[in-house]
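I would like you to help me understand the sequence and structure tokens below and explain how sequence relates to structure.
___
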Amino acid sequence: MELAERLRGRFRLPLVIPIMDDWVSVLYKGGLLSPFQRRKKERLMQHLVDVSAARLAICDDMAEAYRVRYGKPFLSYQNAIDVGRWAQYAKTDLGVKRPVRAAYIGSILPFAQLESLIDCCTAIQALDSEGFPIRLDIYSPAFLAEQYRQRLVVGSAIALHDTINDDATFFRTMQEADILLLPVNFDDYTIEYIRFSMPTKVPAYLATGTPILAYGPAEVAQISYAASAGWGMTVTRRDTDFLRQSVRQLASDMQLRRQLSVRARDTAAERHDSRLVASAFQATLASAAKPKDA
């Protein structure tokens, strides 16, 4: 933040602040000098918000919370994709395979989704063991995921793979799955840190129309977004038995699957299509770049 302020002042540049995670709330909370560093951080953050030409948040919930916190308006911009380009991978047949195929694609971090993803593995393995054939494929960068292999691969129904490296395979994998998982940890630190975060994969999840199961605290933005927009089946209490029942329901209830798929694709087109988002984002930056007297 000090560097940003010095560059802004030295070159008289307009400043645009993009916030992706609520790191402001969790930084400098331990250690002898943390109270001093925290006060310094808070002063700097408020100053930069005050002098910025535009302020960007990663989702609507963050934009509103930061408006209240700092007394300045924030605009909400999430990740965007070209919906038309990837329409060929939209899921049209919502019938499930045997075994049912669930998938998780993305990072595995102890302060974000690890524990809830382990719950998903436990629930899915239990379903398979009790005679409901199902498989879960996890795709995550090996340097993040391999250290947790023993905790994740709790039985033959679970498979851990390295990350997907090309877009076509990424979309095809989501299309071929019967259920996509969106897990978030329930611990206090995770809630505080990623309360307002929005995974970059969410628009791609939505565009494919594969039914989504969102498992995590109701107050976290990605879970509340799934519930309020109706694009995901949400499980908002940490209960692996209830989670197991929810997975079974999502794999079996065709009306629910169709409803979630339609809402997901509609939301992708309305809120995440790059043809709409990019032009609005460019207009925001262009406006911020104009001299104040222009």
Remarks:
- The mean pLDDT is 95.
- The beta strands are 16-19, 54-57, 75-76, 100-105, 134-139, 158-161, 179-183, 212-215, 232-235.
- The first strand starts at residue 16 and ends at 19.
- The first helix runs from residue 2 to 11.
